[in-house]
């Protein structure tokens, strides 16, 4: 039985003749120090022209450098037949359109009925061995594009793109009111709320957080807003939109503190809208990054889910009533 994934190979170029193998691994294949140490411990982890060698040897033009990672499984995750929507899959990546209401990964006290349980079951049924490695997070109630890496090399590369700001993440949200101006940025440091640690607040002593927004559609009682994150703080979009007076519709945790001061009709309408959807109206609509193996810049999109479509139609009907 083959205990390794397919090799990732690199052919040494003429101008690289005489380079150290270690340099090729670090500079051309972008193998991290941590992964390098791991590969060195396995029999076929690092090879030159099919032979296991020390990384201190010099390479020649035309040499084939290869890394092979041992197959892994998520033995700590119980396989469960939980359906999920696949947007794209190859030997390196699984791109999922996550449904609202499902937790991505088992947590303390919640070991089953997560997306991870369903993915592990799916791979098991196909006779494939992978460890569940999501490369970013989505809140339980947030729907949309989620990327899962199938090996540590792919996970490392996309994580580095995230840190470098090279991953494009676009979200769509339905919010109360309408941001002013209709296109702008919210630059507000975020940290835990000292009174309610599970919540986050904008505070001068918090961690830097930047959100770019643009109103795509404006209604009498709300707006469809596109958001792009420059950072990835917990609940960032929800916190920032509430901070500028436009909380997400349906968000039970982040609401306006001055709601009692609003006109009675507006406050009533906000309550009605919040009750018309069972979660915050937030959707990860697009994710784009460079594929770690092919080098191709790829864009993945997830259509607006039915509950947000229905909420959007409700907002449009309110507009028609006032005409």
UniProtKB/TrEMBL annotation:
Keyword match Isomerase: yes
Keyword field: Isomerase, RNA-binding
Domain of life: Bacteria
EC annotation from Swiss-Prot or TrEMBL: 5.4.99.-
Catalytic activity, as annotated: a uridine in RNA = a pseudouridine in RNA
Top enzyme category: isomerase
Limits of the Pseudouridine synthase RsuA/RluA-like domain: 93-243
InterPro entries linked: PsdUridine_synth_cat_dom_sf, PsdUridine_synth_RluC/D, PsdUridine_synth_RsuA/RluA, RluA_PseudoU_synthase
GO molecular function, one term: 23S rRNA pseudouridine(1911/1915/1917) synthase activity
Listed Gene3D superfamilies: Pseudouridine synthase
PANTHER family in UniProt: MITOCHONDRIAL RNA PSEUDOURIDINE SYNTHASE, RIBOSOMAL LARGE SUBUNIT PSEUDOURIDINE SYNTHASE D
Function in brief: Responsible for synthesis of pseudouridine from uracil.
Family statement: Belongs to the pseudouridine synthase RluA family.
NCBIfam families recorded: rluA_subfam
Protein name as annotated: Pseudouridine synthase
Source species: Paenibacillus sediminis
Source taxonomy: Bacteria, Bacillati, Bacillota, Bacilli, Bacillales
């Amino acid at each position: 039985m083959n205990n390794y994934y397919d090799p990732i190979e690199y052919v040494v170029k003429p101008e690289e003749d005489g380079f150290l193998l270690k340099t090729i691994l670090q500079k051309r294949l972008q193998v991290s120090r941590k992964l390098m140490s791991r590969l060195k411990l396995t029999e076929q982890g690092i090879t030159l022209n099919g032979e296991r060698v020390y990384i201190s040897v010099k390479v020649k033009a035309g040499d084939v450098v290869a890394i092979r990672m041992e197959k892994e499984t998520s033995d700590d995750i119980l396989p469960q037949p939980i359906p999920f929507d696949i947007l794209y899959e190859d030997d390196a990546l699984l791109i999922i359109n996550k449904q609202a209401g499902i937790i991505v990964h088992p947590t303390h006290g919640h070991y089953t009925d997560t997306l991870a349980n369903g993915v592990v079951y799916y791979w098991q049924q196909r006779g494939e061995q992978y460890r569940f490695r999501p490369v970013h997070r989505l809140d339980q109630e947030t729907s949309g594009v989620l990327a899962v890496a199938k090996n540590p090399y792919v996970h490392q590369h996309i994580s580095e793109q995230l840190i470098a700001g090279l991953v494009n993440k676009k979200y769509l949200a339905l919010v109360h009111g309408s941001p002013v101006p209709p296109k702008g940025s919210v630059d507000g440091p975020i940290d835990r709320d000292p009174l309610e640690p599970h919540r986050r607040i904008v505070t001068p002593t918090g961690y830097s957080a930047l959100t770019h927004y643009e109103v795509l559609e404006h209604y009498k009682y709300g707006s469809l807003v596109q958001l792009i994150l420059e950072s990835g703080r917990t609940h960032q979009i929800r916190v920032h939109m509430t901070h500028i007076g436009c909380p997400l519709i349906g968000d039970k945790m982040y609401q306006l503190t001055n709601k009692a001061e609003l006109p009675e009709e507006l406050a009533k309408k906000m309550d009605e809208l919040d009750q018309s959807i069972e979660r915050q109206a937030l959707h990860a609509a697009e994710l784009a990054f460079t594929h770690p193996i092919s080098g191709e810049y790829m864009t993945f999109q997830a259509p607006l889910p039915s509950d947000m479509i229905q909420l959007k139609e409700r907002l449009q009907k309110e507009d028609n009533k006032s005409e």
